[in-house]
Write a structure and sequence with these properties.
Strands 2-1-6-5-4-3 form a six-stranded mixed sheet. It has a single domain, classed as Nuclear Transport Factor 2, Chain: A. The protein has four helices and six strands, in the order αββαββββαα. The longest helix is centred in the N-terminal third of the chain and has 15 residues. It is an alpha+beta fold. β4 and β5 form a beta hairpin.
Length: 124
């Protein structure tokens, strides 16, 4: 889905009533909302590659640690963002998913935040 930039996988992999969280303040419910997130990410990044560093699977559940490697569309900077996730898969479809993405690092690498933004915010 990310490497091939193939959005059809979203509809193929998720059940319509799936509950998922993509690490934003608001939960994404179903493929339509996840597609909006995917559209934003693929518009900002190119040459995207996801590397699964660790994966655990038990029954219908899986947990993973991964990295998304890409190049920013604006500026051509290298992007290396870590994320993790948990998914419940039933009958080959994702019925529940939670992803925790290091959006602070992504925003810093895209140039939207200064490198010391977190330190500055905590020093208040």
């Amino acid at each position: 889905m990310w490497t091939d930039r193939d959005a059809t996988a979203i509809d193929e992999m998720f059940v319509p009533e799936r509950h998922g969280v993509v690490g934003l303040a608001k939960a994404a419910i179903g493929p339509k909302e996840f597609r909006s997130f995917w559209d934003m990410m693929t518009a900002a990044l190119r040459d995207t590659r996801v590397v699964i560093e660790q994966l655990w699977v038990a029954n219908e559940e899986s947990v993973f640690f991964a990295r998304m490697l890409a190049t920013s569309v604006r500026g051509g900077k290298s992007i290396d963002v870590r994320f993790s996730g948990h998914a419940v898969v039933k009958e080959g479809k994702i019925v529940e998913a939670t992803n925790v993405v290091d959006f602070l690092a992504l925003m810093q690498q895209l140039g939207a935040l200064e490198a010391d933004a977190l330190v500055a915010a905590l020093a208040v």
